């Protein structure tokens, strides 16, 4: 497969002035008529070859200025001779949406026509310069019997069997969308700050109308928040969201017509958990925020993906922090970053936030581009301060509205508004890998010195790294726990750098990397006593949580290595926080959680040891059992205190209580054999309680009846059934997870072509650390079998699921041999997709 390089970028040789599309819908013979006006691009750097992307299209006719033209067609597109002046291209192609199982381009889901064009799906709809820097207005006419026919922009007319849409905002083809089907809407309206009245709709399959209200409220909250915080107003007369069951991603920000995986928009208390509600709120916000950061200002090329994704993730995390608890959101984001992005950045798939080459861009919708991309923006904000950040963003929107922009453009607005030179900061976009930050402390004559050393280990293609700009937020506490230096941001630019603090009466305790001010691994040789002190006294909730996390990690590692008992000093400190009812329950729930087994494996690997998944599992189980026994007398009271008596609401207050209650239940179930879980299951009137009860019953070996009754209750609800599939795998014993997953693949409801259902089973297996990394390789073999099967139908989802193998080199020789054999088997599959082939070959390297 061909590798595409950032350094080879050239503008397209023509400007597209206008696009007009006509769709005559048919499941296997949809006709797409395109009329496109091209004008030569005067830019001397532009490519001179007239090439239109097009894949899996049957070309029926092609004309230039009304005259038939002969074209050269390859599997990737077509070329032909064109005039040296403005001209009009007309083409008619035929496509078969019902046969499109890759879910890219125009396809069908439950009888509904829908599209997914990012990144390169539009070329499966018609011939077009399918690249983000080619922007145009679009007029779309849809013909068909479907009662609802939608596209981007504003409605431009409709009649019997047709509807027309016009999008006045120039956009790249990846933001094109079309939906047609038997849909019902949940309508609402929003008045923008300048008084513009906007029609809002969430479109769903009949029967799902009752699950739209929460999403609609989230949409209106997002519209208001973007006006209040970023000054961004909506710019069309209508904003449509459509829920689709078969979707590779979470959602897509098509201009004025967002298309959502139904799991990311449909919500009701009976069928959705608190976590689902929060995720839906965040994704609705994310897609809406793209209207400015992504749509009005888009990316010049796909290497700049983080320009829109990093910024939009940063914006949606600010939104969630404002609506819910900022510290809890920050800690949750760090857990996610360490759990998904750090392994990526420290393994064979490591790549810069702005990659420099790819074979298949779909493989770069990664935690690095999204989440590390957002961390980079968070660092910029921290370095320049909130006021300067706001000014830079205003300039960004003013200067680049309507542009296909680059990271250079983005950084320039910060340079121009602050006078800073961001040359060194830019390394965050070009250097891959997670910097390791060591800290040494010195105390003499009232002066306290922190000396930091940064080092980023080699990553694929990048053996040597230069120092990066690292904002290190620090606070100092005196020995009685009072803060003597409030949070201060130190700006580290050298490989080694010292910072001094004078005039202190006594040696302070430093709280370092407050709010997780940079995406680095902090290596701090700190005594357990000092960690316990920070756990008790730190005013920064992240550092307080992290101190406990470090103590938990140290305790578990000592249990694994030396058979030590759980660290009682840490448990004493933790107890004071967990049972402190003046603290936010969701913060206490985060404190109660121990590091994931996968994270512990990563820690051991980083320390030069070979992690044993079974030993890790045993140690975590022993620790959880010890916690349950230690607090046996106090947990029932805590369970009572967290019980919500008010009617269900998915707000931060109630969901925090339920989360802490679920954590308590997972401990008490170890002592009562599942009695409390059964009572909760029987009484549950919402999915949060029902699902946590079911998980605990399964883990207690008492789940058989509940698993059956849950199935009978929810078998008609696809999204709830995804939970049912996933939970059985996730809650299985390590030696049973593979068998449970295999048995579920034989269940009549295992619709493996549906990405949500496939991910429910195999995502849960991949996340079951001891189950997936079973010593006999059965986990690897089962996943490989199914990836080989899925690749023919859906390369994008297959390739993404391959990342389950990215940590294979951490483990012992036996496991490595099994993993290598599984990966090689995938690689050897005849006709393997470009997506999967790129992923597996990178993982194997
Ligand atoms: N642009 C793809 C989906 C998302 O990040 O919003
Ligand atoms: Zn996005």
How would you characterize the overall build of this protein?
There is one protein chain. The chain is an alpha+beta fold. Among the domains are: 182 residues, tricorn interacting facor f3 domain (Immunoglobulin-like, Sandwich); 133 residues, Neutral Protease Domain 2 (Neutral Protease, domain 2), CATH 1.10.390.10; 90 residues, Aminopeptidase N, middle-beta domain (Immunoglobulin-like, Sandwich), CATH 2.60.40; 131 residues, Zincin-like fold (Alpha Horseshoe). It is built from 27 helices and 31 strands. It has an eight-stranded mixed beta sheet, with no helix packed on it. α3 runs antiparallel to α4, α12 packs parallel to α16 and α24 packs antiparallel against α25. The longest helix is centred in the middle third of the chain and has 22 residues. The protein is globular, with a radius of gyration of 27 Å. Beta-alanine (BAL) binds next to β20 and α2.
Write a short abstract of this structure.
The protein is built from 27 helices and 31 strands. The two termini are 16 Å apart.
Mean pLDDT: 98
Strand content: 15-25%
Fold-level CATH name of the domain at 1-182: Immunoglobulin-like
Structural class by helix and strand composition? alpha+beta
Second CATH tier, the architecture of the domain at 1-182: Sandwich
Radius of gyration: 27 Å
Question: Rough shape?
Answer: globular
CATH top level of the domain at 1-182 is Mainly Beta
């Amino acid at each position: 497969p061909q590798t595409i390089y950032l350094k080879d970028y050239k503008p397209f040789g023509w400007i597209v002035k206008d696009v007009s599309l006509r769709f005559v819908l048919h499941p296997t013979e949809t006709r797409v008529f395109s009329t496109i006006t091209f004008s030569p691009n005067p830019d001397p750097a532009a490519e001179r070859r007239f090439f239109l992307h097009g894949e899996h299209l049957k070309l029926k006719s092609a004309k230039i200025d009304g005259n038939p033209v002969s074209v050269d067609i390859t599997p990737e597109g077509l070329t032909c001779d064109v005039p040296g002046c403005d001209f009009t291209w007309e083409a008619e192609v035929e496509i078969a949406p019902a046969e499109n199982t890759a879910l890219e381009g125009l396809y069908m889901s439950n009888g509904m026509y829908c599209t997914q064009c990012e990144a390169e799906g539009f070329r499966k709809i018609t011939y077009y310069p399918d690249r983000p820097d080619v922007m145009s207005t679009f007029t779309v006419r849809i013909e068909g019997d479907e009662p609802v026919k939608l596209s981007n922009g504003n409605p431009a007319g409709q009649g019997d069997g047709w509807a027309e849409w016009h999008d006045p905002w120039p956009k790249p083809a990846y933001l094109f969308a079309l939906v047609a089907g038997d849909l019902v809407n949940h309508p609402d309206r929003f008045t923008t700050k300048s008084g513009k009245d906007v029609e809002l709709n969430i479109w769903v399959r009949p029967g799902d109308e009752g699950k739209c209200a929460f999403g609609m409220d989230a949409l209106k909250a997002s519209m208001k928040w973007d006006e209040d915080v970023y000054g961004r107003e909506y710019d069309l007369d209508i904003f449509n969201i459509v829920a689709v069951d078969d979707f590779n991603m979470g959602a897509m920000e098509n201009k004025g017509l967002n298309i959502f995986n139904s799991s990311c928009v449909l919500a009701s208390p009976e069928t959705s958990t608190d976590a689902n509600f929060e995720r839906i709120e965040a994704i609705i916000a994310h897609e809406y925020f793209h209207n400015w950061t992504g749509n009005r200002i888009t990316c010049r090329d796909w290497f700049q993906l983080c320009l829109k994704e990093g910024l939009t993730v940063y914006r949606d995390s600010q939104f969630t922090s404002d609506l819910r608890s900022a510290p809890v959101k920050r800690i949750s984001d760090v857990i996610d970053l360490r759990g998904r992005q750090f392994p990526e950045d420290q393994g064979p798939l490591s790549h810069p936030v702005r990659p420099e080459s790819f074979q298949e861009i779909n493989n770069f919708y990664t935690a690095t581009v999204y989440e590390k991309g957002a961390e980079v923006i968070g660092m910029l904000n921290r370095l320049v301060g909130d006021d300067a950040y706001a000014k830079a963003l205003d300039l960004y929107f003013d200067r680049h509205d309507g542009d296909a922009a680059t990271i250079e453009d983005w950084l320039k607005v910060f340079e121009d508004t602050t006078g800073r030179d961001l040359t060194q900061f830019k390394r965050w976009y070009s250097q891959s890998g997670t910097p390791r930050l060591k800290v040494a402390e010195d105390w003499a004559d009232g002066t306290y010195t922190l000396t930091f050393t940064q080092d980023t280990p080699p990553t694929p293609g990048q053996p040597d790294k230069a120092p990066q700009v690292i904002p290190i937020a620090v606070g100092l506490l005196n020995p009685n726990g009072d803060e003597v230096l409030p949070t201060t941001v130190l700006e580290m630019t050298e490989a080694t750098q010292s910072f001094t603090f004078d005039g202190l009466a006594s040696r302070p305790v430093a709280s370092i990397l407050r709010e997780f001010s940079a995406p680095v691994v902090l290596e701090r040789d700190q005594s357990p006593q000092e960690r316990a002190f920070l756990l008790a006294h730190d005013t920064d909730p992240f550092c307080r949580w992290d101190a406990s996390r470090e103590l938990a990690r140290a305790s578990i590692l000592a249990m694994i290595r030396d058979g030590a008992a759980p660290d009682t000093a840490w448990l004493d400190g933790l107890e004071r926080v967990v049972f402190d009812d003046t603290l936010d329950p969701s913060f206490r729930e985060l404190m109660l959680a121990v590091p994931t087994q996968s994270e512990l494996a990563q820690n051991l690997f980083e320390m030069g040891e070979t992690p044993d998944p079974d030993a890790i599992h045993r140690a975590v189980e022993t620790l959880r059992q010890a916690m349950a026994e230690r607090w046996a007398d106090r947990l029932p009271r805590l369970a009572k205190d967290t019980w919500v008596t008010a009617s269900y609401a998915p707000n931060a207050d109630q969901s925090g209580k339920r989360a802490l209650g679920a954590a308590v239940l997972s401990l008490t179930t170890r002592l009562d054999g599942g009695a409390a879980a059964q009572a909760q299951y029987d009484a549950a009137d919402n999915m949060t309680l029902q699902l946590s009860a079911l998980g605990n019953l399964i883990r207690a070996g008492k789940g058989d009846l509940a698993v059956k009754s849950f199935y009978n209750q929810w078998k008609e609800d696809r999204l709830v059934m995804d939970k049912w599939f996933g939970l059985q795998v996730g809650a299985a014993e390590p030696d049973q997870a593979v068998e449970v997953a295999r048995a579920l693949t034989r269940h009549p409801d295992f619709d493996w072509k549906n990405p949500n259902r496939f991910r429910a089973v195999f995502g849960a297996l991949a996340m079951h650390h001891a189950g997936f990394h079973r010593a006999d390789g059965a986990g690897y073999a089962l996943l490989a079998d199914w990836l080989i099967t899925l690749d023919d139908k859906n390369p994008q989802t297959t390739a993404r699921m391959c990342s389950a193998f990215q940590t294979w080199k951490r483990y012992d020789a036996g496991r490595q041999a099994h993993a290598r054999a599984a990966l090689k088997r995938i690689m050897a599959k005849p006709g393997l997709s470009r997506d999967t082939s790129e992923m597996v070959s990178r993982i194997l390297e």
